Amino acid sequence: MATSFRTRSRSPENIYVPAVTIFSNVLSYLLFLVAARLLDRSTYGETLALLNLVLIATIPSFAIQTAIARRTATGTVPAGAVRASLAVATGCGVVMALCAPLIAGFLHIDSYVGVYGAALAVPALGVLGLAQGAAQGRQRWFWLCLALGLMGVGRVGGGIAGLMLTHNSSGALVGTGIGLCLAAAVCLRPAVRTSYDRPIDPRARIGRYLHEIAHASHAHGAFLLLSSLDLVLARNVLSPNDAGLYAAGAVIFKAALWLPQPVSLMLFADLSIIDKHRATVRRGLMLVGGLAALTILACAVLGGVAAFIVGGEHYPDLGSEAWLFAVAGSGLALAQFGLYGGLSMLRRRRLIFIWACVVGEVVISQALGAGTTPRAFITAIAALCALTATAMMIAALRYDPVRNPPKLGELAQAGTGVKITDPL
């Protein structure tokens, strides 16, 4: 029987994980609101484009978080895992910095400073991903909440400070980078201790760990593309006025997508244990599905209220379509949980469903063509997302790791560990 190397917290901090996660996500919107009020339209556009670089920079961070969470949960942390994780994050930051001239040219930005600020954030996000993943795997909910909260405060607080001091996009990004570095400095030592508070597995190879990070980067990158693609395609096929309406509805879409995120955070450790996987999948799908149903019902009944919260009095016609955006976002939330279930067991084929949905959205935009209506477009997108969610749920529920264990080793095969003296 597989053995888990987790330390379950006896205190009730786990009830704060959803609250801190939602707080961190909501806090990120504060930076956009402040930027909109301090900057002119041109500079605001530059700032949003550069902040999207920080969003891209979260891909290696999420990958490190996923890999170290699975390893700490299953007691298969290899020697040098922390060092390798930091090397990956630093390398990605260096690549972004070296590409600063190309990125600035593509975004039509005169200064490279903002790009360097985004590059500065990459290693910091890697440290924070390591801290969150280690806390996730060990189920140390206090440290998980601390890392989540510090990441949100550092990113937004630093960005706002930079904006207020400089009133330009470069200041916002440099401030964001510095704020995240400060948050990472606080979390680094707890991250190392939590990663190595149990003996390492002498059979675990660092090459496989790096391969796992690469696969997780692919998965998170593909899902990030899918979660934002419809908005890009909408600008291509809708009129400017309708595209603005769709952009407002996309806020509801993102809210429905990220609302169930704490479920994956809290259940990923149990998903990684072979003899707990199937029961945890069923429990997780019930929780995510329940939140999805409540979100859709609320938007269907209170669509006008949702439209007012999102766009004030500017989008009164969004109320009748709010529930469709909720369906699309909820569908991707279910698909995301299925994807996390696959990552916990190194199931790579589930990415086929994500890429199929990406291709499907492109086909929908071409089939509907220019001049279509927001309702027609979001109806098609919602149907596709629901279909993707159904396929993911079927794959997740059918998979039995006891009968069909992952081909790569180093799962929950707990053995005699070796205590390391130099964790870095």
Brief rundown of the structure:
By secondary structure, the protein is an all-alpha fold. Helix content is 76%, strand content 0%.
Question: Can you characterise this structure?
Answer:
The protein has helices at about 15-40, 40-75, 80-100, 100-105, 115-140, 140-165, 170-195, 205-235, 240-260, 260-270, 275-300, 305-310, 320-345, 350-370, 375-400. Helices cover about 75% and strands about 0% of the residues. It is globular. It is an all-alpha fold and about 425 residues long. It has 2 domains: about 10-205, no CATH class; about 225-400, no CATH class. The chain is built from 15 helices and no strands. It is found in: Cell membrane. It comes from Antricoccus suffuscus. This is O-antigen/teichoic acid export membrane protein. Keywords: Cell membrane, Membrane, Transmembrane, Transmembrane helix. It is a multi-pass membrane protein.
SSE topology sketch:
Blueprint: H1 16-38, H2 41-74, H3 81-98, H4 100-106, H5 113-138, H6 141-166, H7 169-195, H8 206-237, H9 240-258, H10 261-271, H11 277-301, H12 303-311, H13 322-344, H14 351-368, H15 374-398
Helix pairs in contact: 1-2, 1-6, 1-10, 2-3, 2-5, 2-7, 2-8, 3-5, 5-6, 5-7, 6-7, 8-9, 8-13, 8-14, 9-12, 9-13, 10-11, 10-13, 11-12, 11-13, 13-15, 14-15
